Amino acid sequence: MSSSGLGVSNGDIRLMNGSHECQGRVEIMYLGNWGTVCDDGWQLDNAVVVCKQLQCGSAVAALSQAAYGAGVGQIWLDNVQCRGTEAGLSFCSHLGIAQHNCNHNEDAAVICNSNGLSSGGLWSGCRSRATGQVWGWDWNNPTGQSQVLGLRKLFNEMLLHTMERAQL
């Protein structure tokens, strides 16, 4: 594993195919070419770094299996492992630039808590790229109906939070 610090800055990372600039497939620029990031080992700490790097607020989800469509061209990073404190994605541990065992149906994506995805209160959610429907959970009414997000980690965190609130 390496941590190259490729010098990726806000202008060198982007999110594609989301309904706004703070959600979508993760792409980075290297040697003047945009490329994707493979989802092997992709987790919420990686999304935290991407969202912070793009100044898009907190991370809501780290998605895999080309959730925002398959990219084209080079796959620049694989097996990315962030702690959540790095200044940018390229400072996280990874296999090395352009070293991967992936194809584009494994492109990584993130959803950041920005542009209407939070009411500013205790609400978490995301917007479907297919329908535009907002799915979420109202922490002020944890017994209310919630639609299944398909995001195991997010659901587990919500469940844990609800259980902690019930013990208060």
UniProtKB/TrEMBL annotation:
Alphabetical UniProt keywords: Disulfide bond, Signal
Residue ranges annotated for the SRCR domain, each copy included: 13-113
Disulphide bond pairs: 38-102, 51-112, 82-92
SMART domains according to UniProt: SR
One Pfam family in the UniProt entry: SRCR
Transmembrane segments: none
GO cellular component: membrane
InterPro entries recorded: SRCR (IPR001190), SRCR-like_dom_sf (IPR036772)
Superkingdom classification of source: Eukaryota
Keyword Cytoplasm: no
Matching PANTHER family: DELETED IN MALIGNANT BRAIN TUMORS 1 PROTEIN-RELATED, SRCR DOMAIN-CONTAINING PROTEIN
Entry protein name: SRCR domain-containing protein
